[in-house]
Write a structure and sequence with these properties.
- By secondary structure, this protein is mainly beta.
- The protein folds into four domains: 67 residues, no CATH class; 125 residues; 77 residues; 98 residues.
- The protein is 0% helix and 40% strand.
- It is built from no helices and 32 strands.
- The chain has a six-stranded mixed β-sheet, with no helix packed on it. The protein has a five-stranded mixed beta barrel with strand order 6-8-7-9-10.
Length: 469
């Protein structure tokens, strides 16, 4: 110990020119004591207690069993790279460039802004790639409209990051210096679905990204938000082969569509063997082209200038075809099956309106409707049943008419029974020569009444006593 000189100086201790480090002492450069007496640096001695200036160890490290921070510091540092006790959060605060990390409470990621524009503090950002071989994460303002997956979301910028610069993004923790007054009274903040980088207080719904980012700690111009991103998941259950659908904002259940791997069923559960099966009305719109697999009920196709909709009787026969032939500007309804009628039937009391001339290349007729035996009561002729109706008089009776159409022409074939001489009480009819006609009286005779309705009244004619010569 001959080469070590120990001098006490009030409450200070230093070691003079020694080449061997003695545990528990602080040594300067080899051969140079640490601020020895008379060096002009007496105020910079390294004290055990009561330092009056900062201690600079230069590039040397500090090895110790533990460090105790003053929990009531009077001089809080603001220089990057310094640490001190933050009594308000009861943890150690590390000053970083532009932000402060509270050890054990805040979590950050170091990122780079290469978007071409500056990004302010308090902005929601997401993954935009990496900065080449440097490994730095690139960011951009995040828009929660479903255009990118939710896992691209990173966090909130804890400082303004100019274009081309690096900065910190908070993933978990409390971020201060945020204007939270605009969110009152709703504390929950979601990533915005309409403005990139912004917040919204209403919960998004799918297919938007549903990311609950933070909660406002208070509502003021210089407020704080507590950040802990939560990715809201979609729940629910379903049945095998059913196509799922949203049954609520955050839940999924069965739709009415089944895909069993072979065929698709809509609004039905029993597979009848066709590729596409629908139980119910189908509305088809837009341009129609050949659709395979709709056999046997419906086939849509185009051939040249002609578009077809074929309603099929079985797997290989077109029963009725609706087609438009652009070459001749003609719309046609045709059938390829013998004895199959084509029926046009409006709903309820609706009529079929033909606004142009009608060309008939075959017969036009109204199947007659039989009213049977008249009896002695009232026989009502509903013209919706047919324009031509028949009745056998089996007693003296009364006629009534219903549902005429203006311009309608109607006929009643009247047959006397085996007794004959039956009479009719008529409703108001404007008869030829202003005279109510007398029926043929003989048994089994036939008369024909013709009525024309002009919209207000019936005009009537009689043709009597039909029979073979």
């Amino acid at each position: 110990m001959a080469d070590i000189a120990i001098t006490t100086y009030t409450n200070k201790i230093y070691k003079q020119g020694a080449s061997t480090v003695v545990p528990g002492f602080i040594e300067g450069d080899p051969g140079s004591p640490v601020n020895p007496p008379g060096s002009g640096g007496a105020s910079e001695f390294v004290p055990y207690v009561g330092a009056i200036n900062d201690v600079d160890l230069g590039e040397k490290g500090l090895s110790t069993g533990y460090i105790t921070f003053d929990t009531t510091p009077t001089d809080t540092p603001t220089t990057q790279g310094t640490m001190s006790w933050d009594d308000s959060k009861e943890t150690v605060a590390l000053i970083m460039n532009g932000t402060t990390q509270r050890i054990g409470q805040d979590l950050y990621i170091y990122v780079k802004n290469s978007t071409g524009v500056d990004i302010d503090k308090g902005v929601n950002v997401g993954f935009a790639g990496t900065d080449g071989a440097s490994g730095h994460i690139l960011i951009k303002k995040f828009l929660a409209d479903g255009s990118e997956p939710s896992y691209y979301y990173i966090g909130v910028t804890s400082e303004a990051i100019d274009n081309g610069d690096f900065g910190q993004v908070m993933i978990i923790g409390e971020l201060s210096g945020i204007d939270t007054s605009v969110y009152s009274p709703n504390p929950l903040l979601y990533a915005s679905t309409t403005v990139a980088g912004a917040f919204q207080t209403t919960a998004p719904v799918a297919p938007n990204n549903i990311i609950l980012v933070a909660a406002a700690v208070n509502f003021k111009n210089n407020g704080e938000i507590r950040i802990r991103p939560t990715f809201v998941s979609i729940g629910g259950s379903g049945t095998a082969n059913y196509i799922p659908k949203f049954t609520g904002a955050l839940s999924i259940g069965n739709s009415q569509i089944i895909d069993n791997g072979t065929n698709i069923l809509v609004n039905k559960t029993v597979d009848s063997g066709q590729k596409f099966q629908v139980n119910g009305t189908v509305l088809l719109s837009n341009t129609l082209t050949e659709i395979a697999g709709l056999n046997p009920t419906l086939r849509l196709k185009t051939t040249g200038n002609t578009s077809y909709i074929d309603f099929r009787k079985d797997n290989n026969e077109d029963a009725v075809t609706l087609k438009f032939d652009d070459a001749v500007d003609e719309f046609a309804i045709t059938t390829n099956v013998s004895n199959y009628p084509i029926r046009i039937e409006p709903h309820g009391t609706g009529n079929i309106l033909l606004k142009k001339n009608v060309q008939i290349d075959a017969q036009i007729y109204s199947p007659s409707n039989s009213k049977g035996n008249s009896g002695s009561g009232t026989v009502t002729f509903n013209w919706n049943d047919s324009n031509i109706q028949t009745v056998t008089l089996t007693g003296n009776c009364t006629f009534a008419f219903s549902n005429p159409q203006s311009g309608g022409s109607y006929q009643i074939v009247i047959t006397q029974d085996g007794t004959g001489g039956r009479t009719i009480t008529w409703p108001t009819v404007y008869w030829q020569n202003k005279t109510t006609p007398l029926l043929s009286n003989s048994a089994n005779t036939i008369d024909v009444i013709t009525l024309l309705y002009d919209g207000a009244k019936y005009l009537g004619l009689i043709a009597k006593n039909f029979g073979t010569p």
